[in-house]
C-alpha cells in the first residue's frame, strides 16, 4: 500500500528536512506574526491583554508568566512554558521544533533560542531546505543576557548559563556554564546559597 507523502509541516515537526517556503507554513508564520505584532505594540499598561495573546500563541502556558516586549517567534504553537516564567526584552524563539521550558525559568535580555538549522552546502540551502531539532530547558534555570541556544540542546535543572554564551551541546543539572562554546565551569552547591545570605544579610 502506497503511503501518503508527508507534508512540509509534518517533515518539520518530525525532524526531517523540509522547505520553509511551503504555503501552509508561510500562512502559520504570518498568523503568529500578527499576534506578535499586536503583543509588541500594546501600551505597557495592558498586561492582561498581552498575557491573553501569548496564551493564544503558545502551545502551553501556566498561571504565572511574563514576557517583556518586544518578543519574536516563528510559529508559537511549538513553545511550552512552565509556571513562574519570566523573559526580559528581545527574546527570540525560532520554534520550528518544540521548545519546552520548565518552571521557575528566568531569561535575561537579548536571548535567542534557535531550533532551526540550515544545510552547510549552498546547493541545498539555496533551495530553502531547513531542519529543526527540539530544545529543552529544565526547571529553575537562569539564562544570562545575549545567550544563544542552538538546535537539539538540553539544559538541566537548576543550571545557570552565563551572559554571552553560545550553547551547542547539552548542559547538565546544577552547574554554572558559560563561554563560546558554552562549557561547564563548576557545580552549583549550598556554598553559593550561603554566600548570598551572608552578602545581602538575608534571613533563611
From TrEMBL:
- Which GO molecular function annotations are given, in alphabetical order? acyltransferase activity
Q: Which Pfam families match?
A: Hexapep, Mac
- The membrane-spanning stretches of this chain are none
Its EC number(s) = 2.3.1.-
Q: Which residues form the Maltose/galactoside acetyltransferase domain?
A: 9-63
Checking SUPFAM superfamilies in the record gives:
Trimeric LpxA-like enzymes
**Signal peptide location:** none
Alphabetically list the UniProt keywords.
Acyltransferase, Repeat, Transferase
Query: Does the record's keyword annotation contain Methyltransferase?
Result: no
Q: Looking at the record's lineage, which domain of life comes first?
A: Bacteria
Annotated family = Belongs to the transferase hexapeptide repeat family.
Protein known as: Acetyltransferase
Which species is this record about?
A: Pedobacter albus
